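Meet our chain:
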Amino acid sequence: MTDWPLPLKASCLCGQVKMTIAAPPICTFACHCRDCQKLTGGAYSLTLMLPADGLKVEGETEIGGLHRPELHHHFCTHCKSWLYTDGFAEGLVNMRPTLLEDARWFTPYAETMTADRLPGAQTGAKVSFEGFTGEADFPSLMEGFARHAPSQI
């Protein structure tokens, strides 16, 4: 899809952090890794990958989850909702699409860490990886997502 109805609006559970998406998503993902399972309390996490300058965040956030130099998981300081992650690739951010005002259109294009997938956990992703993707995978993922992006939002 090329005509994204931007800006998209999102917020944490308590509403103290509000986010505006001003750039089209690059790709959508589901991650089955054990860390995401523990962070979400679910079978996998969902991700809307965006250019970092396309995400505006208003409200106070704190780093939580895994404290690694290469990953920064941002949470609301009040309700502790996991909002977005940065640091994994320069100029990109992974935002939690379930925080969107309307996330009914969201489907992951790719799923990662299927080696850790729980029995019965299905995402509908078009592309699967047993491990994590790397920056070298991004061009083909972006191209595939552009071909399969939702036609209606």
